[in-house]
Amino acid sequence: MAQQLGGFRVYFPNLIFKIIPDARLSKNQAAFRVPLHVNKLDIKDYLANIYNVTVTDVRTTV
């Protein structure tokens, strides 16, 4: 889905990321629940572009 905004096309992701609290993770790590069709590259791009964070590693499990 895209909207026109002042000459720029703005894309709104159709993804739902749910953060999962996990005491075993260090303070610079996070766990998310994402849809099964989302791959590692999608996760990295989403977090980097939407939240402006540096993603160094993505691990997935089903």
TrEMBL record:
Origin species: Coemansia thaxteri
Protein name listed in UniProt: Large ribosomal subunit protein uL23m
Family classification: Belongs to the universal ribosomal protein uL23 family.
GO biological process assignments: mitochondrial translation
Record Pfam families: Ribosomal_L23
GO cellular component, one term: mitochondrial large ribosomal subunit
Keyword Ribonucleoprotein found: yes
Annotated keywords: Ribonucleoprotein, Ribosomal protein
Record bears the keyword Ribosomal protein: yes
One GO molecular-function entry: structural constituent of ribosome
